[in-house]
Write a structure and sequence with these properties.
The chain is built from five helices and five strands; from the N terminus they run E-E-H-E-H-E-H-E-H-H. By secondary structure, it is an alpha/beta fold. The longest helix is centred in the last third of the chain and has 23 residues. InterPro entries: P-loop_NTPase, Ras-related_GTPase, Small_GTPase.
């Protein structure tokens, strides 16, 4: 299976994660992720800094995510997207420069970092924590939206005809 689940507590809040890893399945050379892209609240796209082909795949995947969300939502993507260059411990074999990753992230309005999952698992934990905080802060912004029209109308009617108004 390519979906991993995890329950954790972040900032006093219980979070249920479902992580979809498309790379754990045979690829067949295409990006057929349409169904998976719709339920995600955030994306972490990882490429290998010592492998130009993985960077090209990450670039195509970023484009696919943007295209999919724009077509469905007809608006700017609200999902959190993080581009991660992995294997920073293999700098001597680097094929993709830090500036290339940074430019791709800026062009796609997503966050960027490079790390070494093999040598510094703390960097991976910190990156996931940052992603989760970003996603949960997006939920808080959505929760603070104004009430729907019917609630606003009910409040207006209550103010006009409510108990505060004295009969003449």
């Amino acid at each position: 299976e390519c979906i991993y689940t995890k329950h954790l507590c972040l900032d006093g809040r219980q979070i249920h994660l479902e992580i979809y890893d498309p790379c754990s399945q045979p690829q067949q050379g295409k990006l057929s992720l349409a169904e998976e892209l719709h339920w995600a609240d955030g994306f972490i796209i990882v490429y290998d800094i010592s492998d130009r082909a993985s960077f090209a795949f990450a670039k195509a995947l970023l484009y696919r995510i943007r295209e999919s969300h724009t077509a469905v939502c007809k608006k700017v993507v609200e999902s959190s997207i993080f581009l991660v260059g992995n294997k920073q411990d293999l700098c001597h074999m680097r094929e993709v420069g830090w500036d290339e990753g940074q430019k791709l992230a800026l062009d796609n309005k997503c966050q960027f970092c490079e790390l070494s999952a093999a040598e510094h698992y703390q960097e991976v934990v910190a990156m996931f924590t940052k992603v989760l905080r970003n996603i949960t802060s997006n939920f808080k912004v959505k929760e603070k939206r104004r009430p729907s029209g019917s609630k606003s109308m009910a409040k207006l009617i209550n103010n006009v005809f409510g108990k505060r108004r004295k009969s003449v």
